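Q: Could you fold this chain for me?
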Amino acid sequence: MRTRLTAGHERPRERLLAFGPAALTDAELLAVMLRTGSRGHPALAMARSLLARFGGLTALLAAGTADIRAQRGVGPARAAELKAMVELVRRALVEEAAQRDALASPEAVRDYLKLTLAPLPYEAFLGLFLDSQNRLLAARELFRGTLAQTSVYPREVVKAALAHNAAGVIFAHNHPSGVAEPSRADELLTASLKQALALVDIRTLDHFVVAGARVVSFAERGLL
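A: Sure. Below is the predicted structure, expressed as structure tokens.
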């Protein structure tokens, strides 16, 4: 027979209130968000199934609404709640980047890019425009392409950077194919953009490639 304490410890909400959110597993935190399960499929079991189905928390948060709502017991309401939570996290990361040196918190930048780019079924090219203190001024999708490629025009990138009065730019794009390795075309494009921006005294600080849960930095690879 289970004791009252043991039964309480099996309930994620009670564990969160007793020990704080850091004490909970990914499945338990997700179960708190889901609140209730479905018949024969309690919230914690549903949370574990979702994490197993998508291969982990990062992939689940990056998944599209249609993919999430298609899972057993989720439906449109819970899928909407999960995507709303993801959007709140994404906006919080934007706020953080706007208030502090983005280069001093690279994980926040990576998390923002994963949440923004990983779910997209098409290739998108982003510009993160920074001030002289590397604080985020704006994040813009500059170009959108197909699954295979996109067309990026240096002149348009320079115009956007000047419009935001940026002192530096971080670029990012996704590879819907799931391969995060920069291509030779990516390297040539980055060099072209860096050269064009240097003419107007704007620094190119990094270029990230996002593929699922992986984020590759050009700066870390010595490709800038």
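A (continued): DSSP finds eleven helices and five strands in the chain.
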